[in-house]
Amino acid sequence: MDFLNKIADIIIKIEKIVMLISGSSMIILVFLQVLFRYVIRISVSWTEELSIISFIIMIFYGAIFASYQKRHLGINNLVNKLPDTSYKIVWFVKNTIILLFLIILIASSFPMLNDGLNQSYAICKMPLFYIFVQIPILGVLILFHLMMSILKKEYLKEFFQVTDKIKKRRG
Q1: Residue 8: count of CB within 10 angstroms of its CB
Q2: What is the pLDDT of residues 107-147, one digit of tens each?
Q3: How many folded domains does the chain comprise?
Q4: In which domain, by residue range, is 16 found?
């Protein structure tokens, strides 16, 4: 398990770095576009495409990082009122549904990768493959975080965090 934790730490650091780089590049590219368009009065269209690419990558890796931190959407009011055993069952059902969705996402993304090799952005001529390849990466990394969560039995940690919040609200 220590080996998997070390791999998870490395993956998390890479995710943070990718989010930082893509977010920073998006901000810089949009700033350059505004500077060129309104100050220098030249429209540089490649900055628009690259900022869109940076935005997509930032969103994907943000979703991966959010899944690691358990920040995805949920129906907390309903789940928080469940007893211990029901909470565990709901937790496993939820993660099983997410697991099935990720497997379908990964499997269905491969035909899109092939199409991405034949298509490219109009101005910067970058193949869409580089964007489409982010989809199976997204699925695999969320799947990895989900499996680590199941292996660590984090349902106990989540359950006790929820019950502590409920006690604080009532008390």
Answers
A1: 16
A2: 999 998 888 888 888 888 888 898 899 999 999 999 999 88
A3: 1
A4: 2-170
